[in-house]
């Protein structure tokens, strides 16, 4: 979405934006020792390995991660690759001046283009990468081997213009055939429920946690390890890349189509539809392979489908300049059916894949609602988790989890949920001062507030306080935090 003009060069603007998003180092003070989960005081071995490889050895885990974030910018890298892969983009942006792209440590699912002095800055929050990855992996895991193969080969052909050698393709096909039955029992109900949890947490807390189904898979080894071929997460990995390419192209479209021209500073729906179609057309123009063509279309579909899932859970109906996702998806179908950029075989393959993906989306959606297990029950994600901890009489997992959520750079929605829980527990505590469960829950929330207070130069301290005043002013339903499941036994 195009945004207001700024009076800095793209590079200056990007440097300021990246600095604006604090990495909350003091969050570590919240983490109880040995709380289980992912210990923030120790990094997972594969990340340790990566950090050592790029020469970052000194400092606390968060200091080292921050240094890595400073050196590695996935959006900048994606953008550079995009210009390589699609020469027509470079041509379209030639008269736009300096165009730079960067990631910021924030959890929102949207990209922005800013008109700057002498060019443009494209800013994409890292939350986009997480939410896109997990959704793509869930869709990929449950797809037919034909679909999976199309995504893998298509993305490879698009990115490097060469597919895997035959021997590797055969190995992949064999592994997919061998494992194709493994996930049948989980589809569509459990998979659908996992998808719903992912998006409910995103809506309540602004974070993307890996679904259990994905966590249960072995880590996918880096290339050229042959164990990648046909790995349950392989197709999803490529689908994510395709969706990210589409997102970046959509942002480029706002620049190439001159959406900053005239008096319109904000994007209109027509501009958004135009940007979508420009992005798909640009991908299709650059490929002669039917796999790459079908995979490009599916990348666009996935990004729009993520927006659709997010809309379904977005109770706050957050401000967006983008039209409803189902209309964007309808437009995509119409475009693919009508375009003459696709030959007969390519169009057939693209429409088949779209059909399969769309059928899965409907099945996962319905299946998710049918799946009844306590951990998939409704309510605010933070309040539910706190209730579980109260019932088990232990706060450590809660504090550990809140710290990890904060680390994802998710403050505004998370602050809202924390403040709501605090107000609700305070009210209940007043009514039932002897209830141990309520006291325990309030104590947990106040530990987060207290830790933020002790770091007075933190932005988060003010955000939590503002969210608290706002929550006090709101009437709160009283069945959320210590409802029946939370009451002490
Ligand atoms: Zn847009």
Q: What would your notes on this structure say?
A:
This protein is mainly α and about 500 residues long. It folds into two domains: about 125-380, no CATH class; about 380-485, no CATH class. Helix content is about 60%, strand content about 5%. The protein has helices at about 10-20, 45-55, 60-70, 75-85, 85-95, 125-140, 145-160, 165-180, 190-205, 210-215, 235-255, 270-285, 290-315, 325-340, 345-370, 380-390, 395-405, 410-430, 435-455, 460-470, and strands at about 1-5, 100-105, 110-115, 120-125. The model is unreliable at about 480-489 (pLDDT under 50). Bound molecules: zinc ion (ZN). The site of zinc ion has 6 residues, from helix 11 and helix 12. Zinc ion (ZN) binds near residues 1, 254, 272 and 275.
How are the SSEs ordered, and which strands pair?
Layout: E1 2-3, H1 10-20, H2 45-53, H3 61-71, H4 74-85, H5 87-93, E2 98-104, E3 112-116, E4 119-125, H6 127-141, H7 145-160, H8 166-179, H9 189-205, H10 212-215, H11 234-256, H12 269-285, H13 290-313, H14 325-338, H15 344-370, H16 381-391, H17 396-407, H18 411-431, H19 436-453, H20 459-472
Zinc ion binds at residues 1, 250, 254, 267, 272, 275.
